[in-house]
Amino acid sequence: MDRALRLLARSRCLSRVPASAPGPGPGSSPSGVSRLLLRPPNAARMASQNSFRIEYDTFGELKVPNDKYYGAQTVRSTMNFKIGGVTERMPIPVIKAFGILKRAAAEVNQDYGLDPKIANAIMKAADEVAEGKLNDHFPLVVWQTGSGTQTNMNVNEVISNRAIEMLGGELGSKKPVHPNDHVNKSQSSNDTFPTAMHIAAAVEVHEALLPGLQKLHDALDAKSREFAQIIKIGRTHTQDAVPLTLGQEFSGYVQQVKYAITRIKAAMPRIYELAAGGTAVGTGLNTRIGFAEKVAAKVAALTGLPFVTAPNKFEALAAHDALVELSGAMNTTACSLMKIANDIRFLGSGPRSGLGELILPENEPGSSIMPGNHRAGQCHSWEWTRSRSFSSKTCLLEFSIILGTGTCTAPPFQDVFVGHLRPGVQGTSPNKVGEKNSSSSIYSDSHTRKCMIILSLTIQSQESFRTGCESDQHGLKKNDLNRCLLVHILLWVLVC
């Protein structure tokens, strides 16, 4: 009887081996073969494919790289959305914002009864995401479902597997930390992605954009004071007009940048309102009373910014008016920078046959065929990046026209919005009426890119203004300054 049972068990193990599995080669150890046959099915597959592990979603099994923390749903997304490649990946500021949000949610869920051991592991893993230590584990592009669902699950899987690893578990087992039941507890993609968008936008504005604009303001202000006593001819329609000082001309640029800072700051109070706690459609289904307020308070504590819970979760999920407002302020800033760049390039034209009123820094070799020709490289870069900024706005405005029909609890194309940082849609998808925002990932990508573009402009430009952009007294005299001044003074005396 015992022998029969052993034979039956052996036959069952043999039936589990794939038909394509290679048999034992010459000189192979029988004991090694026995160990292979007695392994579970998953272990056998992993043994034959060392670089992958097998995970499952509701559609079946998928091979996941062993060196990655993401799971089956992330792999499924990479198969479904092969658009753009690495250059179109979800912006890192959004991923870091997700880490902040997931940490805050885990801390609040612990207060509501989540196992402290699991909660602490989630918080540690989320901190690593927020610090940018796990950036290589987020391969998804902004071109996805639109509501950011795949990215939310990407974050959940990475945090879950990293927490499992910290607790000594097996990657992909979803034990003891489950990506949905624990990491995504009391959350939905429909409220987490808008929340991450707002966190990312606020952090980037405060840590990068506003400091960059302030440096540009200070550099221009210093030049305005330096040029305070230099008299020149003003121009209207590019024709000679009446006198002013070069310092007065630069003071206009200073004021433009000052207003840009004011406009951006004025848009921030609505950015500080978070959708977290609204879950699927804004009702707060599957959350505890006070969850939304506590999560917002935790995020505020983690970032040092005055985040609060949105007073109306239906608006917070269904519209992106706050980001559209901020995008408008950034768009105006881009216009201001464009005007300043054009003026400086025009005044620095020459050096022999142009206006030649400003000496622009020579940051690179000039033309190989035209001696003395040094291009205004920084001014040109301002113009091209401004054009990129405007084109993103046009793209999102097109989305708003196409999708602006019907009613929707969450507008589409969120995943692209943050990168372009452009007026987007608070429209609705005709095919998903009354469901969710399917454009968040596009909006997210847009906002981040626009912020980065303007930041790069301000940083390189303030350095240029500090080290170059001198006045050319010879150029000013060459333009018959004294003669023009005399004519205007005589006219003024005659009129009076």
Describe the structure.
With 496 residues, the chain is mainly α. It folds into 2 domains: 48-183, Orthogonal Bundle (Fumarase C, Chain B, domain 1), CATH 1.10.275; 194-487, Fumarase C, Chain A, domain 2, CATH 1.20.200. The chain has 18 helices and 9 strands. A two-stranded antiparallel sheet has the order 1-2. Strand 5 (273-274), helix 11 (291-303) and strand 6 form a beta-alpha-beta unit. The longest helix is centred in the middle third of the chain and has 38 residues, at 189-226. Mean pLDDT is 76; it is low at 7-48, 399-407, 421-438 and 452-468.
Q: Features of this protein?
A:
496 residues, mainly alpha, Fumarase C, Chain B, domain 1, Fumarase C, Chain A, domain 2, two-stranded antiparallel ribbon, 18 helices, 9 strands, 8% strand
